[in-house]
């Protein structure tokens, strides 16, 4: 029997419009689809009629499908000769547990293809109408998760001291303590934004400063999934909007 | 007369397969296309018959089209009521001068839409078969340009000390001095890779260590455009390949 394979497909923020052609082709070619719960339901319209769909939701806090079980499923179907497509929200290679999945599949001798996608930090910046790395302001951007596996915090002071834009994932529920920690290094008027469901029709965003972002996010009832963006490059959003008669529009083609 | 608008479209690494549907729709809707020289020529097959194509190549070192001229062109056509689509390689919001373009257009009262794409750092990681943020190894990833506008260098020591994966753009020509600077903080056996033309048919990659990456890149004649990836998460590439009978395959659907 032929050995199957696994394709890790990054589904982007949600809207099917933000899928790549390569991702759509991979989904159409799948025998078995394992679909994350941050992925839009509509994605199954792209699959082949015979393909089996398994939803493997696993949101922070309520682990409906344990990671080990997802990995066993992928391995089992691939060893049966199936083409397994694992569809992950955002970009699979950024905070997606893809590293563990690839390593385990590799150990079982299973080939893995990876298809890139749009991560929510980029979608959030597009919605705000800003570059993450405006060269008047910074030399780069740091993507960091606020949710460390050992329960500790990233070294916010060291990250802030680099002067780079910060894109903080999985931090919405602790935005108060994170912004507090960053204020030890950054001025309270440092531009900050938080964007929930970035890149989807239900996107919700707040532009503020490091000093008031936590209060403003609470007021706007911003919750997970959301990305927090901090740095002077993000402040261009307000400048760009103020310069115009109409707000930044996101394309809805 | 209606005021036109500008859409900044991120074309990804090159292969049209890595475009998003939204990007393809924007290109099809354009009256005027301004196309960067890192973008695959084939992209014009997606345009409308009437659309005008202007190539605005501007590679590091040989500035064939000055940035100010590109910005003037965009503004002029938009103020004539045209839909201008500016097609940039990679992700427009990462090291793409998009910040300056958006700000100038906003000042002229011109609406700007942004369409995200796949940046070469992600495409490089997909080719290597690694996550940029394997949680056994790091808390995130830093995207930094080695090419600072004032001719200075990023603070390599501070970046290395964060323990994060480093994705260094525009550093191929100075990989020797960059890896040397990083060795003040990181061990010489820290995994390192350099990937030229990531995500395209002519992709070329070298997996090595911080100690020998510069020599190995020179040997393999890796040149710009290339991205350098450094950190323990990148070392998974070798482990994953070694565990299997066949190398990591990139999907060519």
Automatic annotation (TrEMBL), chains A, B:
<dbReference type="InterPro" id="IPR000878">
    <property type="entry name" value="4pyrrol_Mease"/>
</dbReference>
<keyword id="KW-0808">Transferase</keyword>
<keyword id="KW-0489">Methyltransferase</keyword>
<keyword id="KW-0627">Porphyrin biosynthesis</keyword>
<dbReference type="GO" id="GO:0032259">
    <property type="term" value="P:methylation"/>
</dbReference>
<dbReference type="InterPro" id="IPR035996">
    <property type="entry name" value="4pyrrol_Methylase_sf"/>
</dbReference>
<dbReference type="InterPro" id="IPR014776">
    <property type="entry name" value="4pyrrole_Mease_sub2"/>
</dbReference>
<dbReference type="InterPro" id="IPR050161">
    <property type="entry name" value="Siro_Cobalamin_biosynth"/>
</dbReference>
<keyword id="KW-0949">S-adenosyl-L-methionine</keyword>
<comment type="pathway">
    <text>Porphyrin-containing compound metabolism; siroheme biosynthesis; precorrin-2 from uroporphyrinogen III: step 1/1.</text>
</comment>
<dbReference type="InterPro" id="IPR014777">
    <property type="entry name" value="4pyrrole_Mease_sub1"/>
</dbReference>
<protein>
    <recommendedName>
        <fullName>uroporphyrinogen-III C-methyltransferase</fullName>
        <ecNumber>2.1.1.107</ecNumber>
    </recommendedName>
</protein>
<dbReference type="GO" id="GO:0004851">
    <property type="term" value="F:uroporphyrin-III C-methyltransferase activity"/>
</dbReference>
<dbReference type="InterPro" id="IPR006366">
    <property type="entry name" value="CobA/CysG_C"/>
</dbReference>
<feature type="domain" description="Tetrapyrrole methylase">
    <location>
        <begin position="5"/>
        <end position="213"/>
    </location>
</feature>
<dbReference type="Pfam" id="PF00590">
    <property type="entry name" value="TP_methylase"/>
</dbReference>
């Amino acid at each position: 029997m032929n050995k199957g394979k696994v394709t890790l497909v990054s589904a982007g923020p949600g809207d099917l419009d933000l899928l790549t052609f390569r991702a759509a082709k991979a989904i159409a070619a799948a025998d078995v689809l394992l679909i994350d719960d941050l992925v839009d339901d509509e994605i199954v319209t792209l699959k082949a009629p015979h393909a089996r769909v398994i939803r493997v939701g696993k949101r922070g806090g309520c682990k409906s499908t344990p990671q080990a079980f997802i990995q066993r499923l992928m391995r089992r179907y691939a060893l049966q000769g199936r083409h397994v497509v694992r569809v992950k929200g955002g970009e699979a290679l950024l905070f997606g547990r893809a590293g563990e999945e690839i390593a385990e599949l590799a150990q079982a001798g299973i080939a893995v293809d990876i298809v890139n996608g749009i991560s929510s930090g980029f979608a959030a910046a597009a919605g705000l109408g800003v570059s993450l790395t405006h060269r008047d302001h910074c030399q780069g951007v740091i993507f960091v998760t606020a949710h460390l596996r050992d329960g500790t915090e990233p070294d916010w002071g060291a990250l802030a001291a680099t002067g780079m834009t910060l894109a903080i994932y999985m931090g919405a529920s602790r935005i108060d303590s994170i912004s507090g920690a960053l204020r030890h290094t950054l001025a309270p008027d440092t531009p900050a934004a938080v964007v929930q469901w970035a890149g989807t029709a239900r996107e919700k965003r707040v532009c503020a400063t490091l000093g008031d972002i936590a209060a403003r996010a609470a007021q706007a009832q911003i919750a997970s999934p959301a990305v927090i963006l901090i740095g002077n490059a993000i402040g261009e959003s307000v400048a760009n909007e103020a310069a115009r008669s109409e707000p930044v529009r996101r394309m809805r083609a």
